[in-house]
Amino acid sequence: MNGRNLEIANELKIKYLGIDIVERFVKEANKKIDTLNLDAIAIRCDAKCLNKIKNHFSKHFLAIFPFNSFGNIQDPQKVLNSTYKNKLDTLILTYKTDIKTTKIRKKYLENTLFEKIKKRSSKKGVLFTSNKGLFSYAYSAEEIIKMGKVAGYKKTKNINFSKIGKGYLLLKE
């Protein structure tokens, strides 16, 4: 996205590599990087094709999907296959899938520009769509664990944060 975690990387004094498929977000992130004078770079890249930028990786990198960005990816299995193939542990930050969180999420979406929002719940998770292109999943723990195993990840840690947030740390070893 547009470098919304740059300040955290700066505080922790860690190297930052941001990617997005939207050129505007990459430009915004690089502007922030220049302003903050960080050891960082933002590159236009699809997370399904990380091998194209693997020369920028270090063995200590962690792939992080900021809050519910993973839920907007059209083929998340290919993304996890790519992060695993490139030897990256992965942290996915998303919504919980319980009734309370789903109601809060629906209310939030209704207050945006999206119209005719539809909700579909399944074992896979909770999906919201709209006639204006919204496609946003909050995957169930079981689905994240399953996708992680298919990609090759050996272990998944569940992390609750805030009233509606859930994190999944997928570990190679």
Description:
The chain is 31% helix and 29% strand. It is an alpha/beta fold and 173 residues long. The longest helix is centred in the N-terminal third of the chain and has 14 residues, at 23-36. The protein has helices at 6-12, 23-36, 76-85, 99-110, 141-151, and strands spanning 16-20, 40-44, 62-65, 89-95, 118-122, 125-129, 135-139, 155-161, 165-171. The relative contact order is 0.14. The protein has a 4-stranded mixed beta sheet. It is built from 5 helices and 9 strands; from the N terminus they run αβαββαβαβββαββ.
Q: Structural class of the helices, strands and pairings?
A: alpha/beta
Distance between the termini: 28 Å
Poorly predicted ranges? none
- What composes the largest sheet? 4 strands, mixed
Give, in order, the helices and strands. HEHEEHEHEEEHEE
β-strand number:
9
Gross morphology: globular
**Helical proportion, percent range:** 25-40%
Radius of gyration: 16 Å
Number of helices, counting only DSSP H or I runs of 4 residues or more: 5
Mean pLDDT: 91
* Strand order across the largest sheet: 3-4-9-8
- How much of the sequence lies in strands comes to 25-35%
